[in-house]
Amino acid sequence: MYRRRRERGVASLLVMGFVLFALLSLDTPVYGQAPGSMRDPLVVVQNAEPSGLDPVLNRTGPAYNVTINVFDALLRKSRDGRNVPGLAESFERDTPTSWIFHLRSGVTFHNGEALTAEAVKYTVEEIFNPNVESTRATDLDWVDRVEVIDDLTVRIVANQEYALAEHYFTELQIVPPGYRGRVGYQRFDEAPIGTGPFQVERWDRGNRIVLKRNENYWAGPAPVEYVEFRFVNNAASRVATLLSGDADLIVDPPITARNQINANRNSRFASATGTRVLFVGLDSVQDSPLQDVRVRQALNYAVDKDAIIERLLFGLAEKTGTLLTAQDLGFNEQVRPYPYDPNRARRLLREAGYPNGFSITLDATSGRYINDGAVVQAIAGYLGEVGVEVNINTMEFGAFNGALFSKSTSPMYFVGWGNPVFDPSFIYDFITRTDGLLRTIEDPEIDALLDQARSTTDQALRRRVYREAMAKINDAAPAIFLYKQPVLFGLSSRIDWQPRSDEFLYMYDARLRR
Questions:
Q1: Which fold, 273-485?
Q2: Contact, 415 vs 480, CB < 8 A?
């Protein structure tokens, strides 16, 4: 009896030994380990899959959320919007149109290839290579040439003074010339190699991209070993994925799902003040009552922005002053937002010759911005209270954009405009300039100030000029100034990660609680 039990025990040990040997022989990590392992990665669900991952070719949002974790740029955008050292440990502008970058010593790409000044030169030249057909070329059309000074020193020379150059240096993700040259850009687009905190482990098209921690990262290894990006374009489905425990981070949950997400003990709703400005454009070039500045000012007094933010955006948006907030360069704190004052609005309308108000059409889209349908209805309601009858024309987003950029919208239109660099030029040059991409006002004095700010890299001068411009633009009232909409996320209870205003899914500083 003892002998038979002993034989069964030996057999069991042999089976266990075989299983252990099989597990240890696998090329992939053993499943079932600590949070952030291959079995249990940090799962990020975004709304679209990248078309490719070569930063030379494009910089679409879905791709950039992945590549910002795989590649480093010369500079890095900090959480508060500053341009800080990245692959360049320091830099200086040696002339008004050139910058010298001193690269970090000992940095390697994921395959061991050394980072050098030649890699920087190669990256820029490939962006302008006509055979590559990069969409990044328009972003960098102010760059004239790249000069290698030595292995770790490089000069980038511009063809003009350009105030936003340092922002674009934060997006100039450097690629390895040796590896990319061998495999070709088509293969590199599918399986790229960078210097970043994570490297691409695999890409299952239509399903997921798995990133593995770079143990030799120059700034130290990330806390999480594996990050898995998945792609779900339906917002409700992303929420369901979070609530079921199959995701740690989802992007763009509906703001109306906040209570549902917070009611689940394993998830929470998170937000950050965004960079996208929401406003009602007032086209004063068309023949309408909006040609009178008093009417445009009256519309600003008529709308209760605080109530809209509190009731329809749960208090998560930030009211703007003349399309800007305190984070933006040149913000003038002495320029106060228009208060809610319907009596003053009615008085201005009477002075402008509209004692009984007027009718006007407002073009808008639905589902493009947070709770946008309800916001537009609220605006129409407030304007109706002062005698302005608003006919809402809801358009498909593509048709709306076509009308917007061809300057053929109705005199009023509801739209959002991003400002990821926290610079007024990203707002004013497109919205308030006479020849801007959108059409609102035509004011030579404002144009002259914007020209002055655009033609210099002296940030102190630009700050002073934009403060003056903000005051004039506020008086001219080219829009009903509303708010910066928040950036929304759903997070699992086990992830420790702070949302960024620029919406970047940078996972180097993410942690998973045990």
A1: Dipeptide-binding Protein; domain 3 (3.10.105)
A2: no
CA atoms within 13 A on the CB side of 241: 26
Q: What is the pLDDT of residue 488?
A: 95
d(Cα 39, Cα 32) in Å, to the nearest integer? 5
Work out the pLDDT band at 79, boundaries 50, 70, 90: confident
Buried/exposed 356-372: b ≥16 CB within 10 Å, e otherwise? ebeebebbbbeeebbbb
Q: For the chain, give every domain's residue range.
A: 72-176, 273-485
The CB-side HSE value for 110 (13 A sphere, CA atoms) comes to 22
CATH number of the structural domain 72-176:
3.90.76.10
Q: Which residues contact 161 (CB under 8 A, 6 or more apart)?
A: 96, 97, 455, 456, 457
Band (50; pLDDT cuts 50, 70, 90): very high
Beta strands in 306-357 (DSSP E): 318-319
Task: Classify burial at 273, counting beta carbons within 10 Å of its beta carbon; exposed 0-12, middle 13-18, buried 19 or more.
Answer: middle
How big is the chain, counted in residues? 514
Question: pTM here?
Answer: 0.79
